[in-house]
Amino acid sequence: MLLLAAERLGAEPARTLMVGDTDNDILAARRAGMPVCAVTYGYAPKSVLLALRPDYVIDSPLELLEVLGVPSESKIASAAAK
């Protein structure tokens, strides 16, 4: 399913981030050759997710911006003040 979605979007699996909240999400991303970001505010306990060693782990949706390299509003404001 992940590979099909990437193909239809014209995305390279190795450059497509899978974001998920279960062990199955992490395992599917690994099988598809995709980096994976586990979210701890979803279904599976954090300990289960950490045991699978995802590439990234976030505790809130806003943290995904940092994973993606998008500057947060506070960083933008701080840079503008300089």
Query: Helical element count?
Result: 5
Q: Provide the spatial order of strands within the biggest beta sheet.
A: 1-2-3
Radius of gyration, CA atoms, in whole angstroms: 15 Å
Helix content: 40-55%
Mean pLDDT across all residues, rounded? 91
Structural write-up:
By secondary structure, the protein is α/β, with parallel strands linked by helices. The chain has one domain: Rossmann fold (3-Layer(aba) Sandwich). The chain has 5 helices and 3 strands, in the order αβαβαβαα. It has helices at 2-9, 23-32, 46-51, 63-67, 73-81; strands at residues 18-20, 36-39, 56-58. The protein has a 3-stranded parallel sheet. α3 links the parallel β2 and β3 (56-58). It is flat, with a radius of gyration of 15 Å. It starts with a helix and ends with a helix. The mean pLDDT is 91.
